[in-house]
C-alpha cells in the first residue's frame, strides 16, 4: 500500500541532500527528505568532518570570491546567526575552508530546511525501490514503526553511497575499484591549553615516533590537519586513515575498531607536546568517515580535464574550486591544483542517472573521473550539486537553460 506521494523524494540529509530538498522546494515541489540519522549534515555531523571546503577556490594571497551560493550560503547565514564565525581561513595546504561547530551545524541545517517547507523524516532508512519503464516508481522506507512505501515523480540520491541507485538495480552503480579513496577517523580533542602551539613539524615528529613503535603507517606522515573548533576550546585532528570498502558490515566493524584504537594512541602520543599534557579524545564518529564507496552510472561524468584546465562545460549547473585532494592510500594525501582561474563547472549530465530518467545524483554520488571526484566530493561543492539535482528533479520539463535560470533565481553561483 502506498503511504504518501511527493513531487520529489530526497534520500540522505547531508550537505547534498539538504541543498537538494531546499532547491526542489524553492522550485515549487512538495518534497520529503529521508535521513537515517537523527540530524542533518551528513559527514560533518556524523563523522566529525568539521570543515566545509569548496565554498572558495584555491587562490593564494587574497581572499577569493565564493563559488557556492544559494542553499550553502543560506546555511552559512544561519550559522552566523548562531554566533559562529563563517569566514574561511587560509589553511597550511593553501586553501580556504570554513571551520564548523557540529551542534551549531545541526541547528543551522534544521533551520535551512524547515524554512523551505520541505518535509523531513529522521531515523528513516530508504531500503528498497521499485522501478518500471526506466523510472523509479516507489521506494520503501523503514522507520521505528516499520516499513512503508512512498511514491514520487522524481528522486534525488544524496546518500553518499548511491544507496538508492543500488537498491533500485545494482547495475545502476559502478565503483572506481582499486582507486577508491581510503576512509578516515577524524578526532575531536579536548583538554589542550588554549595557547598550545599547533606546530606541524613537532606533531609530525610525534606521529613518526608512534608509527615506528607500532610498526604501522596509517597516520599522516606530515602530522595531519589540526585546527580549532569554533565556539569551543577543542581541536579537530584529521590524521588517522583507515582502509575499508565502506559497504560490508564486518569490514566496517574492523575499520571502526581499528580506527578508534589508533585514534586513542595517537592522541596519547600528542600529550608529549607542550600544552597537550591533558589532551584526550572528546569524540570520534558516530560513524567512520567514508570518502568513496560506490557511484551511480550517470549520463556523462565530470572529467579530469575539466578540472586540470579549469573549464566550464556546456550545461554547467554547479561550480567547484577545491583542489583534487587525492589519497593514494592510508597516510598518503596529495593535492593537485585546478587549472585556469581555479574554478570548474559540473555538467548536468554528471547528475543524471543513466538508468532511470527520474533519478538525479548529488554530492558524493555524482558521476566523475577519480581525480575529479577527489575535488567535487567536498561539502561546499556537494551543496552546489545538491541544489542543482533538486531543481532538476522539481523541473521535469525544463531544459538546461531553464534549470540554470531557476538556480540563479535561487542565488546559486554559476559564473564566478
Ligand atoms: C575523513 C573525511 C574527511 C573529509 N574532509 C572534508 C573536509 O574537510 N571538508 C569537506 O568539505 N569535505 C570533506 N570530506 C568530504 C565530504 O565529507 C563528503 O564527500 C561529503 O560529506 C559528501 O556530502 P553528501 O551530502 O554527498 O554525503 P554525506 O555527507 O555522506 O551524507 C549522506 C547522508 O545520507 C544518509 N543516508 C545514507 N544512506 C541512507 C539511506 N539509505 N536512507 C536514509 N539516509 C541515508 C547518511 O546518514 C548521511 O547523513 C571528507 C570526507 C571524509 C570521509
Describe this structure in words.
With 416 residues, the chain is of the alpha+beta class. It has 2 domains: 2-179 and 292-409, FAD/NAD(P)-binding domain; 183-284, Alpha-Beta Plaits (2-Layer Sandwich). Helices cover 29% and strands 24% of the residues. The chain is built from 11 helices and 21 strands. The chain has helices at residues 15-26, 43-46, 70-81, 102-114, 163-168, 200-214, 249-270, 304-308, 370-376, 379-394, 400-409; strands spanning 2-11, 31-34, 51-52, 98-99, 119-121, 125-132, 135-143, 146-157, 173-174, 183-184, 187-190, 225-228, 235-238, 241-242, 280-284, 295-296, 316-320, 324-329, 332-336, 344-347, 359-361. Helix 1 runs parallel beside helix 10. The longest helix has 22 residues, at 249-270. The N and C termini lie far apart (47 Å).
Could you give a quick summary of the protein structure above?
The chain has 416 residues and is α+β, with helices and mostly antiparallel strands. Helices cover 29% and strands 24% of the residues.
Question: Could you tell me the number of beta strands?
Answer: 21
CATH architecture of the largest domain: 3-Layer(bba) Sandwich
- Stated plainly, the CATH topology of the largest domain is called FAD/NAD(P)-binding domain
CATH class of the largest domain: Alpha Beta
Structural class: alpha+beta
Structurally, how many domains make up the residues?
2
Put simply, the count of helices is 11
Shape: globular
Bound molecules: flavin-adenine dinucleotide
Helix content: 25-40%
What is the terminal separation in angstroms?
47 Å
Work out the radius of gyration.
20 Å
In terms of DSSP E residues, the strand content is 15-25%
> Mind summarizing the main beta sheet?
7 strands, mixed
CATH homologous superfamily descriptor of the largest domain: FAD/NAD(P)-binding domain
Oligomeric status of the shown chains? single chain
Question: Regions with pLDDT < 50 over 5+ consecutive residues?
Answer: none
For the residues shown, what is the average pLDDT?
94
Amino acid at each position: 500500500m502506498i503511504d504518501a506521494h511527493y513531487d520529489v523524494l530526497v534520500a540522505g540529509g547531508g550537505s547534498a541532500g539538504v541543498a537538494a530538498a531546499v532547491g526542489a522546494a524553492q522550485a515549487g515541489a512538495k518534497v520529503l527528505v529521508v535521513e537515517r540519522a537523527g540530524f542533518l549534515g551528513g559527514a560533518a555531523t556524523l563523522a566529525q568532518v568539521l570543515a566545509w571546503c569548496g565554498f572558495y577556490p584555491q587562490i593564494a594571497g587574497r581572499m577569493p570570491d565564493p563559488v557556492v551560493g544559494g542553499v550553502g550560503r543560506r546555511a552559512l547565514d544561519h550559522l552566523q546567526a548562531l554566533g559562529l564565525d563563517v569566514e574561511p581561513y587560509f589553511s597550511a595546504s593553501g586553501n580556504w575552508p570554513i571551520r564548523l561547530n557540529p551542534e551549531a551545524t545541526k541547528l543551522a541545517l534544521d533551520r535551512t530546511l524547515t524554512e523551505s517547507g520541505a518535509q523531513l523524516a529522521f531515523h528513516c532508512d530508504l531500503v528498497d525501490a521499485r522501478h518500471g519503464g526506466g523510472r523509479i516508481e516507489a521506494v520503501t522506507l523503514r522507520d521505528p514503526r516499520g516499513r512503508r512505501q512512498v511514491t514520487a515523480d522524481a528522486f534525488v540520491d544524496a546518500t553518499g553511497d548511491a544507496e538508492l541507485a543500488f537498491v533500485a538495480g545494482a547495475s545502476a552503480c559502478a565503483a572506481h575499484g582499486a582507486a577508491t579513496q581510503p576512509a578516515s577517523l577524524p578526532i575531536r580533542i579536548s583538554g589542550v591549553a588554549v595557547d598550545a602551539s599547533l606546530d606541524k613539524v613537532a606533531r609530525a615528529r610525534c606521529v613518526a615516533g608512534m608509527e615506528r613503535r607500532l610498526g604501522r603507517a596509517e597516520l599522516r606522515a606530515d602530522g595531519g590537519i589540526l585546527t580549532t573548533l569554533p565556539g569551543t576550546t577543542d581541536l579537530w585532528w584529521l590524521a588517522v586513515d583507515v582502509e575499508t570498502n565502506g559497504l560490508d558490515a564486518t569490514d566496517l566493524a574492523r575499520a571502526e575498531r581499528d580506527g578508534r584504537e589508533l585514534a586513542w594512541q595517537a592522541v596519547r602520543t600528542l600529550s608529549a607536546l607542550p600544552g597537550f599534557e591533558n589532551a584526550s579524545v572528546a569524540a570520534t564518529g558516530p560513524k567512520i568517515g567514508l570518502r568513496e564507496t560506490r557511484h551511480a552510472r550517470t549520463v556523462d561524468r565530470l572529467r579530469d580535464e575539466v578540472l586540470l584546465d579549469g573549464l566550464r562545460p556546456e550545461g554547467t549547473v554547479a561550480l567547484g574550486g577545491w583542489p583534487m585532494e587525492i589519497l593514494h592510500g592510508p597516510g598518503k594525501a596529495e593535492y593537485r591544483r585546478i587549472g585556469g582561474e581555479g574554478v570548474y563547472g559540473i555538467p548536468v549530465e554528471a547528475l543524471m542517472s543513466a538508468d532511470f530518467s527520474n533519478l538525479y545524483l548529488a554530492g558524493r554520488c555524482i558521476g566523475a573521473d577519480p581525480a575529479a571526484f577527489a575535488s567535487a566530493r567536498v561539502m561546499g561543492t556537494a551543496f552546489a550539486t545538491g541544489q542543482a539535482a533538486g531543481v532538476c528533479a522539481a523541473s521535469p520539463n525544463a531544459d538546461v537553460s531553464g534549470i540554470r535560470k531557476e538556480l540563479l533565481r535561487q542565488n546559486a553561483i554559476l559564473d564566478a
